[in-house]
Amino acid sequence: MHPILLKIGNFQLYTYGLFVALGFLTALGLAQKEARRRGEDPGFIVDLGFYMLIAAIIGARVFFLMVNPDVVLENPLAAFQIWKGGLVFYGGFIAALITAIVFVRGKKIPFMRVADIFTPGLAAGHAVGRIGCFFAGCCYGRECDLPWAVVFKDPLSLAPIGVHLHPTQLYSAAANLTVFGILWFSRMRITRQGQLFWLYVLLYGIIRTILEFFRGDPRGFILDGPSVSQVIGIVLACVASAALLRPLKKKGKAI
Fold first, then answer.
1. In 41-50, which positions are buried (b, 16+ CB within 10 angstroms) versus exposed (e)?
2. In the 3-class helix/strand/coil scheme, how is 107-160 assigned residue by residue?
3. SS3 assignment, position 219
4. Which CA distances in Å does 27 have to 21, 61, 113, 163, 222?
5. φ and ψ of 247, to 5 deg
6. Spatial CA neighbour of 20 closest among 120, 127, 144
7. Is 90 helix (H, G, I), strand (E, B) or coil?
8. DSSP 158-185
């Protein structure tokens, strides 16, 4: 594919970085739209969004380096080259979540209300960001002989060159876009704060666990079994299921 979208002299525009930025703007724009619908201050959403972005980038990179320590051992400076790829979603998600909890508690606003505002945009932004993964070649798939297999030819690609691979980045983009559609449709029908957030956690946990079977990139495994992301996805899906089922025992308050 095309890891570098534009090169003028010493200036290089990395496709991965561009799509991560577009994904963030997409998520933030949808969150602002949802905030207005719910009567919340869009300015507060923008402020929180930027704090979460910084935390997410740091968390995603740290998580990647934790499961791929050889990257730093081979080249210490590579730890900071996030524009070339190497961000783990769950690391960013957890870091951004912690940041949001701290920030929102300081403002005395119900956290789950804010989480529901951000959730649909998060899924849409993630879908856009995965397109950047595809261009960079990171998060690549296993070898396959399917008609829709992709072959990376650019020597700067992070994926193996000249090999037919599952386009797992596009699988993920399509899955996240589908999740966005479900959340956007459901946001008008939820009856309790937090339902939209936990629905997202459940759906993403399921699709991430499944997609991991098709990935071929080094990403950390537990005892030569499931990947770290699969374990996290299963655990979070279970927690989300419990959170979604619990209100069924108690009449919820419409919001």
1. ebebbeebbe
2. HCCCHHHHHHHHHHHHHHHHHHHHHHHHHHCCCCECECCCCCCEEECCCCCCCC
3. coil
4. 10, 20, 16, 33, 32
5. -65, -20
6. 127
7. helix
8. SSPBT-EE--HHHHHHHHHHHHHHHHHH
Which residue shows structure tokens 């934790």?
66
| CA gyration radius, the chain | 19
DSSP character string of 226-252: SBHHHHHHHHHHHHHHHHHHGGGGSPP
Strand partners, 165: 143, 150
Number of neighbouring beta carbons within 10 Å of residue 2: 15
Per-residue pLDDT of the chain (255 residues; tens, 9 = 90+): 788 888 888 888 888 889 989 999 999 999 999 999 988 888 989 999 999 989 988 888 888 787 777 766 676 766 666 655 667 787 888 899 999 998 888 777 888 999 999 999 999 999 999 999 999 888 899 999 999 999 999 888 888 999 999 999 999 999 999 999 999 999 988 888 899 999 999 999 999 999 999 998 877 677 677 888 899 899 999 999 999 988 665 544 444
CB proximity list for 3: less than 8 A, separation 6 or greater: 14, 15, 16, 84, 135, 136, 137, 154, 156, 157, 158
Cβ(118)–Cβ(27) below 8 Å: yes
- Distance between CA atoms of residues 8 and 145, nearest Å: 37
Provide the pairing of β-strand 4-8 with 11-14: antiparallel
How far is the C-alpha of 22 from the C-alpha of 171, rounded, in Å?
19
